[in-house]
Structure prediction request, 249 residues.
Amino acid sequence: MSEVNKERRHLLGAGAAVAGLVVAPGVFLVTAGKGRADEEAGESGPQWGKVRWGMLVDTAKCSSGCTQCVSACDKENHLSGETLPTSSQWIRKMELTDRETGKNYSLPMMCQHCDNPPCVDVCPTGASFKRWDGIVSVDRHLCIGCRYCLMACPYKARSFVHHPVTDQNPDVPRGQGCAESCDFCKHRIDEGQIPACVEACGSTGGGALLFGDLNDPKSEISQRVATIATLQVRADLGTEPAVRYEGIL
Prediction:
């Protein structure tokens, strides 16, 4: 066993003991640690809940042959683009068929940025967290590689970095032995830009992705969600995803 793995195992055991957690099948770890800046997590100040970033996917405009969103995500975040079990995929295209009508749907599946994220609930160190603006993210410096979040995510949106990471985007730090997932390109959002997938879909794709503030009644996404039928994937779980899908009801 490598020294890194020994250290991770030691930290995992110590973290569970300190928090008083019992790890057993079917038991969620609900005590999360802290460690990132309050400004990012939104644990102080009046900003919490003021903005909630979300995405609306119009499945009528999303074609099965288009992978512009996936390619843009890979390029922006310096992902390999491979689809092996050990590869990181922050967006994947899904092909669905309605059993009753036979109609086919193509749609992107990424982190749903839940209001009640299971990945945050099970994280023993606080590495998985929700920002003040609703974006769910991972602090790689706190992640001990336990992969509880991968198991807890009902959308299979989390990846684990199995191999050494090279040629990184300085704005998107990644690390071997850490969990990761779509974070709505928070480095772009913080600079007033839109996620790379949305930009690519609008310029070279079908224009199926709409991004904006769900809490702003004047935003386009908020107005569309209020006037058309949309679907939250596995809404029955009560996770309250910020990603909605139009046209598959």
